[in-house]
Each structure stands twice: as C-alpha cells, then as structure tokens.
Amino acid sequence: MSNAILLHLDSSILGDHSVSRQVSAAIVARLTQADPALKVVYRDLAAEPLPHATPASMPADHPLSGGKGDAASQQALDAFLAADIVVIGAPMYNFSIPTQLRAWIDRILVPGKTFAYGADGAVTGLAGNKRVIVALARGGHYADPGFATAAEHAETYLRWVFGFIGITPEFIAADGIAAGQREAALEGALRSAAELKAA
C-alpha cells in the first residue's frame, strides 16, 4: 500500500448528466480499490472555477504575479505538485476543452515549477513523475486522423500540454455521445476504467 495522493478534477457543466464525470469517478474507484491507502483530493472546476488568467490571478510562484499572486491559484498549483496521480474529467465543448479546465491548466504551467527552459531554449518538463489519466467525452467520432487533426482540440491539446511538462497522459474516451451512441460509449468507457492498470 502507498501513501500516494490522487487529485481528481471534473470540469463538465452537466452535473449528473455528464459522461466524463461518470467515467472519471469510475477511474478513481478502480484506483482506490487497488490501493485503499490512496488519499483522494477532489475539485469540481465547474462548481469552483478559477478566474480567467490575469497577472494578479496567477499563483505567487508564477513570474507574472510579481511575487504576490492569488491564493486559490497557488493552492491549485500546490495540489497538482503534491499529487502522484491526476484524474481529469474532460468533456469536449465546441472542439476544445471547457474554459474552466483551461483556467486550471493556466495555473499549473509555471516556469521553474513544472517546466524549465535551458540555455539553448530547449524545454525540460519537471512533472514527469506524475500519472495523468483523462476521462474524455466527445459528441462525435475522431478516429480519422485528418479530421482529428483539423477539428479535435481536446485530446490533442491535452497530450501536448502535459507532454510539455514531462507527462504522457492516458486517455479513456467515450465517443459518439451526441451521435445516438451515448449508452454504448459510456458502457465502453466504464469497462475500460474497470480494466485500467492500477500502477
């Protein structure tokens, strides 16, 4: 058993109707079943949203804040830094992630904390010791690479942004929710969550 910390984030605005919330909860249930000693820290980014980014709303650790910063933003960064596992419920709205989730990401991309620039300009990710699992819910299907490249800015964005800080995220996707396949998509995603590798 471990004393690891699991940070669980939801960002859907749909409450109990949300597919991503159901799948993220199933992922957390699977991981806590495998390791009952996991400490779970939960934040609902839709119910408790961070404001849009301004210098004053950044964490104190962010250079833009001038060393002052916002307490809630610093808490969000500290919670991410303390976590060993991060589970994120991420629906795709209008081909991208919710603005609430984007505001949270603005708080965790902090030079010197989660990434660093080298003398030659190369970026080093500093958060590579974390596991990130994303419960992704999308209305359509994005299996076609050309269409996904042009229209999908949720999984593609999250892969890039977490890769930037040294993390290769895992995804469990429920696709086709708005295309008459909600139940099948949810069932498949919940099955994948139940079969998720615990460590």
Key terms:
two-stranded antiparallel ribbon, single chain, 7 strands, 199 residues, Rossmann fold, 6 helices, 5-stranded parallel sheet, alpha/beta
Characterization of this structure:
By secondary structure, the protein is α/β, with parallel strands linked by helices. The chain has one domain: Flavodoxin domain (Rossmann fold), CATH 3.40.50. It is 34% helix and 20% strand. The strands form two sheets. The chain has a five-stranded parallel β-sheet, sandwiched between helices. Strands 4-5 form a two-stranded antiparallel ribbon. Strand 4 and strand 5 form a beta hairpin. The longest helix is centred in the first third of the chain and has 16 residues. The N and C termini lie close together (11 Å). Also exhibits azoreductase activity. Catalyzes the reductive cleavage of the azo bond in aromatic azo compounds to the corresponding amines. Quinone reductase that provides resistance to thiol-specific stress caused by electrophilic quinones. Keywords: Flavoprotein, FMN, NAD, Oxidoreductase. It catalyses: 2 a quinone + NADH + H(+) = 2 a 1,4-benzosemiquinone + NAD(+); N,N-dimethyl-1,4-phenylenediamine + anthranilate + 2 NAD(+) = 2-(4-dimethylaminophenyl)diazenylbenzoate + 2 NADH + 2 H(+).
What shape does the CA trace take? Answer: globular
Largest sheet: 5 strands, parallel
Helical region count? 6
| CATH-defined topology | Rossmann fold
Q: What is the CATH C-level name?
A: Alpha Beta
Tally of domains: 1
CATH architecture heading: 3-Layer(aba) Sandwich
> What is the β-strand count?
7
Mean pLDDT: 94
**Structural class given helices, strands, pairing?**
alpha/beta
What is the topology, as strand order, of the major beta sheet?
2-1-3-6-7
Name the helicity range: 25-40%
Q: Classify the beta-strand content into a percent band.
A: 15-25%
- CATH superfamily caption: Flavodoxin domain
End-to-end Cα distance, whole Å, is 11 Å
